[in-house]
Design goal:
heterodimer, A: two-stranded antiparallel sheet, B: about 300 residues, mainly alpha
């Protein structure tokens, strides 16, 4: 149901020539996206170049062409370079971890469980089950479970599996842990749709030609599931780089784990420093588009977009 | 599901004593392909425990006889389930009904607009096709903070006060792309000969659409609507930028996180979870038993 997005079906496509009807079908939706997606981006660019209104109140700005809003982001004293680095570092680490954790799960559901369709359906529902409980409450549950007083942590310390002074909440570890956890379903589903259609005979052919299991995996399974890997990593990396819930102080983060999202939120909603928030948003979007473009090109899956 | 079941005799190898001739070679080969007989299933079980731990935690703590914040276990009670709307003058329930209303309205809007675009994209050829596909794809590839901040800066520039309407406008925008992608896959998998048959029998175009195309698309449209509702219902980041003083369920939790979340929030989240999982399981298994019935009838 909810994972239908990730299941492209066989196509019987027979596009007809354009007609007035097509235009009529497209117009309302395209206008809507123009009005509430494209012009907001333009508005964001204009806001990012604003100057404070002379003798105006806090939060009052005039349109200008003030490039300094961008250079100020990299100011060594009160700029946001550490936050930018942290955002992409945490997101990258969480994406790699989520891929490593999700691939075996998707392999089990998509390949090993083929003989039992009921089990396959049940496991798929369990993969998306976290979607049905509030994202924020899930993250708060981990905060409680990772806190110093939780039975998990005190238990692990009691049996000496954990150093007595170990501490998790508020650390980069907890933030990366939370992001990884929250995006595992987004990673697993596209991997599953690819692995589910993987032709086992290909793997058998490799084994018949004396390839080691590792070689079969590297040379056959991974290349054949590349579209799933690319889709999963994008579905994880993009929202993870902009996330600010996990890194927030009331959730898994602390003062030293603030990401770009936290800075944008604080500047826009608390400090009313709209130009700084807008400049950071534009920067975040441009960096992501460049990274994603390079990644998709390198992995040779352009047609996925 | 693919028809690969018959071609995949991998998995647990039978004991050597009862192997039919030729099977020995096969079982050795499969042991070489697999990731170890028991390792992968064991790993999968552990991974699922990890995935489901926060859900179980949230559910268990909905029965906690807690005071203001719901952190340490103080004993079992049903009271939070029976008196959900009492705490904080019903703030949790107001936030919840706001989320339902916003989810409902933006799902209807996004599903209608998105289905129309999907039909046009899958059925017609026109010059701006790739440009429109890009326009659909971009909102899904943009981080939510950027979408949220962008809309908020536009509402600010135009002078629109933030309230329920601005949240609905924002949610419709980000749900739209997901509807297009979901429904488009369904349109593309439709067998065109069914519509041809209708036309051959002299059905006018509108009748072909309402009697053939639309019923065949309906499961895809419903799946898109369900996806869109769950995206809207759980959205926090975009909502936070465009909600003003209106509370939604996720926003309530975010704000309350600093002072402690009452157990009533766990009650609502658990109830929503149970409701959603029952819907999805029913849909999934009824689809499967229907497929099996059809397969049996086909011989």
């Amino acid at each position: 149901m909810a994972f239908a997005v990730f299941t492209p079906a066989e196509t019987h496509e027979a596009p007809k020539k354009s007609s007035k009807l097509a235009l009529l079908l497209l117009l309302p939706g395209v206008l809507y996206l123009g009005l509430f997606f494209l012009t907001p981006l333009v508005s964001l660019v204009l806001t990012s170049l604003q100057v404070p209104r002379p003798d105006g109140d806090v939060g009052q700005y005039d349109y200008a062409f003030n490039w300094q809003n961008y250079t100020a982001l990299f100011d060594p004293d009160d700029g946001y370079f550490p936050h930018i680095l942290r955002s992409f570092g945490y997101a990258l680490l969480a994406t790699v971890l989520a891929l490593l954790i999700s691939y075996p799960i998707a392999y089990f559901i998509g390949v090993k469980a083929r003989k039992w369709p009921m089990l396959q359906s049940l496991l798929l529902v369990l993969v998306i089950a976290p979607f049905f409980i509030s994202f924020l409450l899930r993250t708060l549950a981990w905060k409680q479970l990772l806190s110093d007083e939780s039975f998990v942590i005190t238990g692990l310390k009691a049996v000496s599996l954990l150093a007595p002074d170990a501490h998790f909440t508020g650390t980069p570890f907890a933030v990366v842990f939370g992001i990884t956890y929250n995006f595992i379903p987004f990673m697993t589903l596209p991997l599953y749709t690819n692995l589910e259609r993987l032709d086992i005979r290909m793997l058998e052919a490799g084994a018949d030609l004396y390839a080691s299991p590792f070689h079969v995996f590297r040379k056959i399974t991974v290349p054949l599931t590349m579209p799933g890997i690319v889709a999963g990593t994008l579905l994880t990396f993009i929202p993870a780089a902009g996330d600010y819930v996990n890194a927030s102080r009331d959730f898994l983060g602390g003062p030293d784990t603030q990401m770009i999202g936290n800075v944008i939120e604080a500047n826009f909603l608390v400090l009313e420093n709209y130009p700084a928030a807008a400049a950071l948003s534009i920067l975040l979007m441009v960096v992501i588009l460049v990274l994603v473009g390079a990644y998709v090109k390198r992995s040779g899956t352009e047609d996925l977009l | 599901m693919s028809g690969g079941q018959a071609a995949t005799p991998d998995g647990v190898a039978p004991s050597p004593g009862m192997l039919p001739p030729g099977a020995a070679v096969r079982s050795i080969r499969h042991r070489r392909i697999g990731l170890g007989g028991w390792l992968l299933p064991t790993y999968t079980v552990i991974a699922f425990v990890f995935l489901l731990v926060p859900i179980v935690y949230t559910f268990v703590f909905s029965f906690n006889d807690s005071l203001k914040s719901n952190i340490s276990w103080r004993g079992f009670t049903f009271e939070k389930w029976t008196n959900v709307c009492v705490v904080e003058n019903g703030a949790v329930c107001t936030a919840f009904t706001n989320s339902l209303l916003i989810g409902g309205v933006s799902t209807i809007a996004a599903t209608v607009l998105g289905t129309m675009i999907a039909l046009a994209l899958a059925r017609y050829k026109f010059g701006a096709r790739s440009a429109i596909s890009l326009l659909i794809f971009l909102p899904m590839a943009t981080p939510e903070v950027v979408l949220g901040a962008g809309l908020a800066s536009q509402f600010l520039a135009v002078g629109v006060p933030k309230d329920m309407l601005t949240i609905i406008l924002a949610h419709t925008m980000f749900c739209l792309s997901f509807v297009v992608v979901t429904v488009k896959a369904r349109v593309a998998s439709l067998d065109p000969t069914l519509e041809e048959a209708g036309r051959d029998l002299y059905a006018p175009p509108w009748q072909v659409f309402w009697r053939i195309t639309f019923p065949l698309l309906l499961p895809g449209i419903l799946a898109a609507a369900l996806l869109s509702f769950s995206l809207s219902f759980d959205d926090f980041i975009i909502t936070n930028f465009n909600s003003g003083s209106v509370n939604t369920f996720p926003k309530y939790i975010y704000v309350a996180a600093s002072r402690g979340i009452p157990a009533e929030a766990n009650v609502i989240a658990s109830a929503v979870f149970i409701f959603a999982i029952v819907i999805v399981l029913t849909a999934q298994f009824s689809k499967q038993s229907r497929e099996r019935r059809l397969a049996k009838r086909a011989g």
